[in-house]
Write a structure and sequence with these properties.
- The chain contains five helices and no strands.
- It is mostly helical and 164 residues long.
- α3 runs antiparallel to α4.
- The longest helix has 31 residues.
Length: 164
């Protein structure tokens, strides 16, 4: 009887270990939209957020469509390089980052010409929030989400405050 119970315990442990390892691929699947769909969704989001008129909607849609097409082409290039196992040189990485920044500058100037002053200020604030949230998400994803003092204001955590 003891042997039977021992065997059942071992089988149970092995089966739970196998099940726990099988659940690693718990990542979310992203929607695979084409460029027109992405441009339409982004334009509608901006319309809701910034109260765009019809001329602005058309201009934003054209801008977002160009950006989406360029982004999809770049993504395909990176996928092909990854499949081939191609490692980028420092010069290639510099060129990619330089092109990305040029594209961002062009997009900002285009959006500035499309939106009015009030809408553009609201858009800039929205971009700052997105950037801050993205940095938080990146830090959390890399395992750097340990509690540390807030570096922006220079204040220590509660545990570091002198309580004399």
């Amino acid at each position: 009887m003891r042997k039977l119970v021992g065997i059942l315990v071992i089988v149970f442990l092995v089966s739970t270990t196998i099940n726990a390892q099988g659940k690693k691929s718990n990542t979310k699947k992203r929607a695979n939209f084409n460029a027109e769909q992405m441009a339409t969704l982004q334009t509608k989001r901006m319309t809701l957020h910034f109260d765009l008129d019809n001329n602005q909607k058309k201009a934003i849609y054209n801008l977002k469509l160009k950006q989406a097409e360029k982004r999809l082409a770049t993504t395909e290039m990176f996928k092909l390089n990854k499949e081939k196992g191609v490692q980028l040189t420092n010069e290639q990485r510099f060129e990619i980052q330089n092109n990305r920044l040029d594209t961002q500058i062009e997009a900002k100037t285009a959006i500035k010409s499309i939106l009015n002053k009030e809408q553009f200020e609201k858009w800039e604030n929205h971009q700052k929030v997105k950037m801050r949230d993205g940095k938080k998400r990146m830090a959390k994803g890399k395992g750097n989400n340990q509690k540390k003092g807030n570096k922006q204001d220079g204040k220590p955590r509660n545990s570091q405050i002198n309580r004399s």
